[in-house]
Amino acid sequence: xxxxxxxxxxxxxxxxxxxxxxxxxxxxxxxxxxxxxxxxxxxxxxxxxxxxxxxxxxxxxxxxxxxxxxxxxxxxxxxxxxxxxxxxxxxxxxxxxxxxxxxxxxxxxxxxxxxxxxxxxxxxxxxxxxxxxxxxxxxxxxxxxxxxxxxxxxxxxxxxxxxxxxxxxxxxxxxxxxxxxxxxxxxxxxxx
Length: 192
What we know:
single chain; alpha+beta; Aspartate Aminotransferase, domain 1; 5-stranded antiparallel β-sheet; 45% helix
């Protein structure tokens, strides 16, 4: 895992693109840190943006992206359950350079949201019922249920979404077995 900005900048995938996005974000007056093994950018102590390097694209993610205007329709939710995060995706350095004005405008809007203290409303998220396979696992092992209940609500939700996304009972049971150790260690789905 990358521990420093320098470590992240050495990554070979999206190397030039990452450096360009970083330059733009720093040029907008954001502070830089390493969070979640990624380059993250804050303003007045609040998370504003993060740089992603994925298989088919790189992106800038905006933590309060769902509150942004997005007049050009370029912001994309990372998943069907994403309530707040929205990303701008790029497939080349040239694409980043051609959209630099849009990137800067979006960052300025995200900073304004942070300064205004705007918050994404998470209260209207639908409740996710645990699948029967998880209920059965809890019945078989009360310590496992206690470990799950001790997780933060966000970690619980992440696991429930992952488990219930599986269409077959066997797949749900297999996922529960696979993640049991992480749950017992108090870790979320995306933590190592």
